[in-house]
Amino acid sequence: MKAKFRELDSSESLDELIASSKERPIVVFKHSRTCSISRRVYNEVSNVDATVNLITVQHSRDVSNAVEQLTGIKHESPQALVVRNGSVVYHASHFDIDPKEIVKHLS
Predict the structure, then answer these.
(1) C-alpha distances in angstroms, 90 versus 25, 27, 35, 81, 106?
(2) Residue 75: closest CA among 83, 84, 65, 90
């Protein structure tokens, strides 16, 4: 099964998503539609068998900034984070993003 991408486009949705990580871990993927690295990594992340909450930085920069404020992790794009119980348990950017590590941290 391929990833189910869900666009995350408001700070309110982000707050709800982080709160839901207390029930099950969540994936956030920051993506730039103008970056060739981001396109390649997006294709790799699309193989993760999970819901991937997508922040397209060109359309939702405020949400991307809110992720940085909530987590303390500097913004990069592309960037993947797995959040469990409100805390980041995995994060990587660019070619360091590993779909296998994402899946591992979702278990």
Answers:
(1) 11, 9, 22, 5, 9
(2) 65
Give the Cα separation of 67 and 2 in Å (integer): 25
Inform me whether the pLDDT recorded for 1 exceeds 90.
Answer: no
Which domains does the chain show, CATH number per domain? 4-106 (3.40.30.10)
pTM: 0.94
For residue range 14-60, list pLDDT tens digits in order.
999 999 999 999 999 999 999 999 999 999 999 999 999 999 999 99
Q: What distances in angstroms separate CA 32 from CA 14, 68, 76, one per listed residue?
A: 18, 16, 10
